[in-house]
Amino acid sequence: MIKTSIRNGAIGLATVALLVAAPAAALANPAPDSGPIDGGTTVTVPAPEGVTFTELYAGGFHTLATGSDGNTYAWGYNEEGQLGIGDKSAANRVKLLPVPVAQPDGVKFTDIQPGGYHTLALGDDGSLYSWGRMRKGSLARATPQR
Fold it and tell me: Where are the domains of the chain?
């Protein structure tokens, strides 16, 4: 898991730099859904209008960010519901741009730990929240929920 602070400009864009060398030609116009897979590319992920990302959390198949508005945003693979958007239908299996995580009313997440197919979050109310694939107790629940 990678957790890093993101410092952005006023336009609310998070920039993620991959640190493995890549050919110069591969650096042209990278986007969240295209570009080289061998690294060395800076990809700009647009935050929702008026929001700046302040923390970034990288999971195995998805990424989450804390927004300056106190909400959590997610993007990436969602077949197991690991984005926390409440819908893992075919139309929502992959999200290339950040979407808001369905947070409980009045709760803000203070720490987020994404795994490969699940996410755990600590709420400012002291509760642990979890979503995604239940595998061998990964969601800290007694029984699987889908």
Answer: 2-132
